[in-house]
Amino acid sequence: MAQCVTKVQLTISCENLMDKDVGSLSDPLCILLQNTGADDQWMELDRTERVKNCQKPQFAKKLQVDYYFERVQKLKFGVYDIDNKSTALNDDDYLGGVECTLGQVVSSKTFTRPLQLKKGKLAGKGNITVIAEELRDKRAAVLQLEARNLDNKDFMGKSDPFLELYRQGDGDSWQLAYRSEVIKNNLNPNWKTFSVSLQSLCNGDLQKPIKVACNDMDESTSSDLIGEFTVPVQELLEATDKVIEFECIHPEKKKKKKSYKNSGIVRVRSCKIEIDYSFLDYVMGGCQINFTVGIDFTGSNGDPRSPDSLHFISPNGVNEYLTAIWSVGQVVQDYDTDKLFPAFGFGAQVPPNWKVSHEFSLNFDPNNPYCQGVQGIIDAYRNAIVNVRLYGPTNFSPIITHVSQFAAAAAQQPTATQYYVLLIITDGEITDLDQTRNAIVESSKLPMSIIIVGVGGADFKAMEVLDGDDGVLKSLTGEPVARDIVQFVPFRQFQNAPREALAQTVLAEVPKQLVSYFRMRNLAPVNPPNPTQ
Questions:
Q1: Staple partner for 70: which of 49, 111, 453, 507, CB 3.0–4.6 Å?
Q2: What pTM value is reported for the model?
Q3: Does the pLDDT of residue 231 top 70, yes or no?
Q4: Which CATH number fits domain 139-275: 2.120.10.30, 1.10.630.10, 2.60.40.150, 3.40.50.720?
């Protein structure tokens, strides 16, 4: 199962509710339900308190829900007039409700909709407003540590020290919060500057002690403790403008030797608190995710009129291309306010001159390649498949370069307001691998992610190279990517899986990739939240 990105807190209020009571006002309560995945099956997640005699309630109880970027999470808010103490709603009046997705709520600063008695039928009175906030301490401690004169634990050579920072748990327990890199053969190590969230380090409480343990790495046996100390996080912050030192104490040595002083000194060269902004901070701050689709129209797909072709549309109106567009687009569309998506084809001979093109507008309008919503992309694809001639070769670099030009323009702005996701759907081996590697390295410096879905049964080894999960992708000149921006998934792994599974897999990396770009640029979200929220 995918891990939830974070927990979201929903604050709910209503206005101008219907009055169902005689002699008094309604006593409203709001219930939050989530679709279980079946057609019209809903499960209650939580409910607010009941507010007596009020047509304009502001509910004090916050509702919480796990948030997954890569899923379409369908929610339903139902408002009832509660006339008794029973938790069942059979005898209570329904004042109206709203169906939406969690993506729509979190991407809106304030989500307001008129209440409906049933889907498509307005209640006649009443609005509901939902405000989403992320439940998370956004602060992180940024530390630079070193040690001096550590005990030597090795007979041959010197100790190989590394640090572990522990959060205080229940009773006498300690929970690991951070582990540093190992520095080989060195009794005076300087570790790399690192960042650890205050949530992980001390549950956000600066007065809480943490334990710092210095160990000697031993590959053949368990690591040996060199020494340790405990200290409140607040005390570490004294290293903002000066170096502070702590004796590294080995408890057993201290017990046995009266003359024992310490096993070395750990020095905190600097410690400061920074804000660790999340994906939702950027989205809630108004960052738009611009979705672009590139579709492979090369001859290896087969004649679209033949049932053997990957472009053949089955009697029930689908093929692998359409399924990929719909699955990914359904998620991403909630994060783009105008719902206008550029869509391109590549590898086809295009009318009227029948020249091969590797970035033609799917709707055949070179001046306006935008499609209205995901359905617009699907309609343009259905029209294109009967009007182009499948050809070749399979070149990715033109369409990557095309989208990167828009991302480059956005990168010139000193605000975190635009991010680009390019979905490429292809059937086979890439022809311009070297040029594509260069294009990806350049794009990795921009606010951009690339998703590649491989359809059919071809060998996709080159795509796995582009993904970079097994090593850092480099350009022809040896320049490495600035950050990992490519996610490749073969569609065949999802042929018998639920429709949502493909989107969950290919989009799982996007939140991390978006945050990594803005962090690299040192750009905070627009209207950043209170850091202790």
A1: 507
A2: 0.71
A3: yes
A4: 2.60.40.150
